[in-house]
Specification:
heterodimer; A: 4-stranded mixed sheet; 33% helix; B: alpha/beta; 4-stranded mixed sheet
C-alpha cells in the first residue's frame, strides 16, 4: 500500500508538470477564499475575456460584449457552500451565476467544481460531469478551480475503474478526466494554453472531505 | 491526397515537396524533438510490455469485432443511443446527412476525426447544404485552406504562423499579427461563436467500450467536449476497430496512446460518454446521441491473416514522426488521407489501388516505424505486402521480372555481374568509382559517386586467401552477399584475417547466391523464396557453428525473411529454423562469440563515429556490439546524435527516389561531421556504398569503412602464421 503522503506528493508533482496550479487548503471555507482571491486578481490584470482584445469578426465580437463582467459559477457545490461563496463575492463586486451557464457561453471568469477522484500517476482529475452545469463550468470558465479531497487520490486510472464502470452501468453518464489546462500545439508545435477550455487550472487539495 | 496518375507525376510532386523549405525545417525539428519527448513520457515504464499489451488487446478486439459491435449496440440502445452501422463511406455520409436533416440542423460543428476525413464527410455535408466548421485548431486551419491533414495528430504542421496569420486576417476581415498566442485566442473566440450557433455536433471516438456502450474521446484542446455538450444532437463516427471489450482495455491503450503520440503522459481531456446526458438546448432537456460505426473494408480486413494487424492501429501518428521519408516530403505526399507508414497500407484498403500504387514504392524499409509503433504492427513488411499485391493484380513490371529471371539462375546472375565488370572499364578510368556515369543506367544516382565493381570478386579470390586453421574454435560459413562479393571483397578479406587470427575455420560455400532481399523489396516474392532455398542448400547449417555475414541487410533477411518465405511455401522448416538461428552479423560474432577486447588491438589515435545500419540495429536488435568493438579497437568513439537514422539508401529505393535519398544522406553526413570524427564505420555494404558515395561527391575528408576493415587494421601485429598454427 503506497503511503498517502507519497500519493499526494506525486499527484502534485504530476499536475504541476502540466502547468496546473496546486494549493492546499484545510477547509471548504479556505477554498472559497482562494477562489474569490483568484477571481479578484484576474479581474485586476485582465479586463476582457480571452481573445476579446484581439481584432475579431462581427459575430465573435458581439459575443464578447454579451459576456462582459466578473462572474463566478459554482454548480454542484451544495446550498451552504454556495451561500458562503455568495457572501464572499458580494464584498468584491463579483457576480455569482445563478441561472444556467448556457446563458453565459461567451465565457465566465471562474468556475469552481468538486472532484470525484484524483489520479496520482498523471495528475488527473476525474469529474462526474453528467450534470450539464458542472460540465459547462469546467469548459467555459477561463479559470477552473477544482476541489479535490486528498482522501480521493488514487494511484492509477485502474484504481478508479470499478467506480467508473459502476457509473457507466447507470447511464446517462458523462465522466471527464481533466489533466492541466486546455492546450494546443497546432501552430508550429508551439504550446499555447487555453484554446477552447480553461486557460488555467487550479487544483485545491482539501484535507476535509 | 494522391492525385498523381502515374509514378512520374508522383515523383514531380515529391520534388515540389522537397523544395518546401519551411516544411522540411519544421519536420526536421520535430524529428529531433519527438524521440526525446517520447522517451521522457515512458520513463520508468517498460515500453515493450505496454506495446505488447496494446497489440494483444487490439488483436482480441479485432477477432471479436462482430460480437463486440452487437454488445455495444445492445448496451448503448438500452441507454437511449441510436446505433448505426455503415458498410461503406457513402452509407456513413448518407446516414449522418439524414440525421442532420431530421434534426433540422443547419450549422454543424466538428471535432477531429480521421474517420470523418476518410469518408470525406465535410464535402458530403456541405454538398447537402449544411455549414460545417472544424473546431480543432489545426483542422480548422486546413479546412479554411481547403487542404487535407498533413499529420494525423498535428494536421497543420506544414504551415507557418505567418500563413495562419494571413488566413485569420481573411477570416476576421481584420489584420492579424503572426503571434501564436494571439492567433490561438482569435480562434478561441471565432470558434466559440460557431459553437453557440451550432445545432449538431460530430466527433470521432478513440474507444467504443462494449461492456457499457461507452464512447471514449481523448483531446487536448477541449473542443470535443463542447461538440458533445452544446448542440442538441451529437453524432459520433467511429471505425469498427475502435470497439474494445472493457473499460480496462481502453484505459490500458490510453496509457500508450498519448505518450507515443505527443510525449504526454495523458491528454488534457479524456471524455467518457454513456448514453445521452441532459441538454439545456432543448425544451425537454433531452439530447439526441447517435453512434455511427464505419466498416468500409474493416470487417474483411479483420479476417485477413496477413493484414488484420493493421486494425491494431490507434492513430498515434508515431510512424510518421520517425519516418525519414515523411521528414523530407511531409504528409501530403506521404499518404492519401491517412499518412505515414500506416497510411501507405490503409490507403490500399480504404481508398483503393489507384491511390496506393505510387505510395507503397516510397518506403526505405528502414524499420523505424515498426520500432516505434504503439501496437507493434510490422509496418514495413505490410507495405511490401501491399506492393506485392498490387503487382500481382496489375502484372509485375519488366524490371522486377527481368531481375527475377536473372537471379533465379545463379550462374547467369554471376555471369552478368562479371560481364558488367568488363563493361564498366571505360567509365571508371581505372579508379574505384564510376567517373562518368552512363546516364541511361545510373543517371538517377548523380548525387553520389557510385563504386565500380571489384576487379576480381571475392569468390574468385577465395582460393588464394583461404587460411587453414588447426584445432579451430569455431567452424564458420561466410555468407558474402552480392555487394560484398562483387564490389567490396576487401571487407571480406579483412574479416577472414581477423577471424583466422582468432582460431576460426572459415568456409565460403561457393554456391551461395543473392540473399533475396532486393527481390522481396521489389515485390518479387516467388523469386525471393527460390533464392532462399538455394542458399539453404549451399550453406547447410548442419555443417557449421555459425553462418556469419558482413552485410546487415543480408543478415536480417536470412534470419527473419528466409524462414517466413519458406514457411509460406509450406516447405519443411526445421532446417530453415536452424539456418536462421545460426545466422550472425559480423559484430555479434566478433564481440559476443570471439569476445574481442582491447587486448586484441593496438590503440589508434583516430576519432571514429558509427552509423547503425537499419537492418542491424532495428532488424536484428544489435546495438551494443559495434560500440564495444570500436572502443576495444583503441579508438576515440564519437557517437552521432542520429546514429540510428537510415542513411537513405534502401537498395533500389535510391534509384526510384534519388532526390529523397540525397536529402537524407546530406542530413546524415552533417550529423557525422558534428562528431569531429575522421573515420566513419558501419556494418552494411549498402550503407558503405551510400555514405562513401556522398562523402566523395561532397569532397569531405572523412573516410568511410566497414567495421571489419577498421578492426583488421587495428589488429595487434600478430604472431607469424606458424606460431598461430602451433
Amino acid at each position: 500500500m503506497t503511503n498517502r503522503k507519497d500519493l499526494e506528493t506525486r499527484f502534485e508533482e504530476k499536475a504541476r508538470n502540466v502547468s496546473a496550479f496546486v494549493s492546499r487548503v484545510d477547509t471548504l471555507a479556505q477554498a472559497l477564499d482562494y477562489t474569490v482571491d483568484v477571481c479578484v486578481r484576474k479581474e485586476a490584470c485582465r479586463l476582457l475575456l480571452a481573445g476579446c482584445e484581439e481584432p475579431l469578426s462581427g459575430g465573435a465580437e458581439g459575443l464578447c460584449d454579451a459576456g462582459r463582467g466578473k462572474t463566478v459559477a459554482a454548480p454542484g457545490l451544495g446550498a451552504e457552500a454556495t451561500r458562503l461563496l455568495g457572501r464572499r463575492i458580494a464584498r468584491e463586486d463579483v457576480v455569482l451565476v445563478e441561472d444556467t451557464l448556457r446563458n453565459h457561453l461567451a465565457g465566465i471568469d471562474v468556475g469552481i467544481t468538486l472532484v470525484d477522484f484524483g489520479i496520482a500517476e498523471t495528475g488527473t482529475l476525474v469529474i462526474d460531469s453528467s450534470d450539464e452545469e458542472i460540465r459547462l463550468a469546467s469548459m467555459i470558465s477561463e479559470i477552473h478551480v477544482a476541489l479535490l479531497p486528498v482522501s480521493k487520490i488514487r494511484e492509477t486510472a485502474y484504481d478508479v475503474e470499478k467506480e467508473l464502470v459502476q457509473d457507466m452501468r447507470r447511464p446517462p453518464n458523462f465522466t471527464a478526466f481533466i489533466t492541466g489546462a486546455s492546450r494546443t500545439a497546432d501552430i508550429e508545435r508551439v504550446l499555447a494554453l487555453g484554446v477552447h477550455g480553461p486557460l488555467e487550472l487550479h487544483i485545491l487539495l482539501m484535507e476535509e472531505d | 491526397m494522391q492525385e498523381a496518375r502515374n509514378l512520374r507525376e508522383y515523383k514531380d510532386e515529391v520534388r515540389e515537396a522537397l523544395d518546401n523549405e519551411f516544411q522540411r525545417e519544421a519536420l526536421d525539428k520535430f524529428a529531433l524533438a519527438y524521440p526525446v519527448g517520447r522517451q521522457n513520457a515512458f520513463a520508468g515504464l517498460e515500453i515493450d510490455t505496454l506495446v505488447d499489451e496494446v497489440a494483444r488487446r487490439k488483436d482480441f478486439a479485432v477477432a471479436h469485432m462482430e460480437e463486440l459491435y452487437q454488445e455495444f449496440k445492445s448496451k448503448a440502445e438500452a441507454a437511449g443511443v441510436h446505433v448505426h452501422l455503415a458498410r461503406t463511406a457513402k452509407e456513413a455520409n448518407d446516414i449522418i446527412a439524414d440525421i442532420a436533416r431530421s434534426a433540422g440542423a443547419r450549422n454543424i460543428i466538428k471535432s477531429k476525426s480521421m474517420t470523418a476525413e476518410e469518408i470525406l464527410l465535410n464535402h458530403h455535408l456541405e454538398a447537402e447544404g449544411f455549414q460545417v466548421t472544424e473546431t480543432d485548431l489545426g483542422e480548422w486551419i486546413i479546412q479554411l485552406r481547403h487542404e487535407g491533414p498533413s499529420h494525423m495528430v498535428m494536421p497543420a504542421i506544414h504551415l507557418s504562423r505567418y500563413q495562419v496569420a494571413d488566413l485569420f486576417s481573411d477570416v476576421t476581415g481584420k489584420t492579424q499579427d503572426a503571434e501564436i498566442e494571439r492567433l490561438v485566442k482569435v480562434a478561441r473566440r471565432e470558434l466559440r461563436q460557431k459553437f453557440v450557433e451550432a445545432d449538431l455536433g460530430v466527433s470521432g471516438a478513440n474507444f467504443a467500450v462494449a461492456e457499457t456502450g461507452t464512447i471514449g474521446m481523448t483531446t487536448n484542446e477541449g473542443n470535443a467536449r463542447l461538440v458533445a455538450t452544446l448542440p442538441r444532437t451529437h453524432v459520433v463516427l467511429a471505425g469498427l476497430e475502435k470497439l474494445v471489450p472493457k473499460l480496462h482495455d481502453a484505459l490500458s491503450i490510453n496509457r500508450v496512446l498519448p505518450k507515443n503520440a505527443t510525449g504526454q503522459a495523458i491528454t488534457s481531456y479524456v471524455t467518457w460518454i454513456t448514453g445521452p446526458v441532459e441538454c439545456g438546448a432543448t425544451p425537454d432537456r433531452k439530447k439526441e446521441l447517435h453512434v455511427v460505426f464505419l466498416d468500409n473494408g474493416r470487417s474483411r480486413l479483420a479476417r485477413d491473416p496477413v493484414f488484420s494487424q493493421v486494425l491494431r492501429c490507434i492513430r498515434c501518428g508515431a510512424c510518421a514522426n520517425v519516418c525519414p521519408v515523411y521528414r523530407m516530403v511531409g504528409g501530403h505526399r506521404y499518404g492519401h488521407i491517412y499518412i505515414g507508414a500506416i497510411g501507405l497500407i490503409v490507403t490500399y484498403f480504404f481508398h483503393g489501388r489507384e491511390k496506393a500504387r505510387n505510395l507503397v514504392m516510397n518506403c526505405l524499409n528502414c524499420g523505424a516505424c515498426k520500432a516505434v509503433c504503439a501496437a507493434g504492427i510490422d509496418l514495413p513488411r505490410l507495405i511490401k505486402e501491399v506492393h506485392t499485391r498490387i503487382q500481382d493484380e496489375e502484372g509485375h513490371p519488366l524490371k522486377g521480372r527481368l531481375a527475377g529471371i536473372a537471379m533465379k539462375n545463379r550462374k547467369l546472375f554471376h555471369g552478368l555481374l562479371t560481364s558488367l565488370r568488363r563493361a564498366q572499364r571505360p567509365v571508371t578510368g581505372g579508379t574505384q568509382f564510376m567517373r562518368h556515369l552512363p546516364m541511361v543506367l545510373f543517371g538517377a544516382y548523380e548525387y553520389m559517386a557510385l563504386p565500380a565493381l571489384a576487379e576480381r570478386p571475392f569468390r574468385e579470390l577465395w582460393p588464394t586467401i583461404h587460411t587453414r586453421v588447426e584445432h579451430p574454435r569455431f567452424r564458420v560459413a561466410l555468407f558474402a552477399g552480392c555487394l560484398e562479393d562483387f564490389v567490396y571483397p576487401q571487407h571480406l578479406i579483412a574479416a577472414v584475417r581477423l577471424f583466422s587470427r582468432h582460431g576460426v575455420d572459415v568456409h565460403f560455400p561457393l554456391h551461395q547466391t543473392c540473399c533475396g532481399l532486393p527481390l522481396d523489396m521489389m515485390g518479387e516474392k516467388e523469386t525471393a523464396r527460390e533464392l532462399a532455398e538455394q542458399n539453404l542448400e549451399a550453406a547447410d547449417p548442419a555443417n557449421y557453428d555459425y553462418i556469419v555475414t558482413l552485410c546487415a541487410s543480408c543478415a536480417s533477411h536470412l534470419k527473419n525473411g528466409v524462414p517466413r518465405l519458406l514457411q509460406m511455401a509450406g516447405s519443411p522448416s526445421a532446417k530453415a529454423r536452424e539456418f536462421s538461428e545460426k545466422i550472425l552479423p559480423f559484430s555479434s560474432f566478433a564481440a559476443d562469440v570471439l569476445k574481442l577486447g582491447p587486448d586484441d588491438f593496438s590503440p589508434s589515435n583516430r576519432k571514429v563515429t558509427y552509423h547503425a545500419s537499419c537492418h542491424l540495429c532495428r532488424g536484428l536488435g544489435v546495438r551494443k556490439a559495434p560500440h564495444e568493438l570500436i572502443r576495444a579497437s583503441g579508438s576515440d568513439f564519437g557517437q552521432a546524435s542520429e546514429e540510428e537514422t537510415c542513411c537513405g539508401f534502401g537498395g533500389t529505393y535510391a534509384s526510384n527516389f534519388p532526390q529523397i535519398s540525397e536529402r537524407i544522406l546530406k542530413r546524415k553526413l552533417a550529423d557525422f561531421q558534428q562528431t569531429g570524427a575522421d573515420l566513419l564505420v558501419t556494418e552494411c555494404p549498402g550503407c558503405v556504398l551510400h555514405l562513401k558515395g556522398g562523402v566523395t561527391r561532397q569532397g569531405m575528408s572523412m573516410e568511410v569503412e566497414h567495421l571489419a576493415e577498421h578492426l583488421a587494421d587495428q589488429m595487434k601485429p600478430g604472431p607469424t602464421r606458424e606460431k598461430e598454427l602451433r
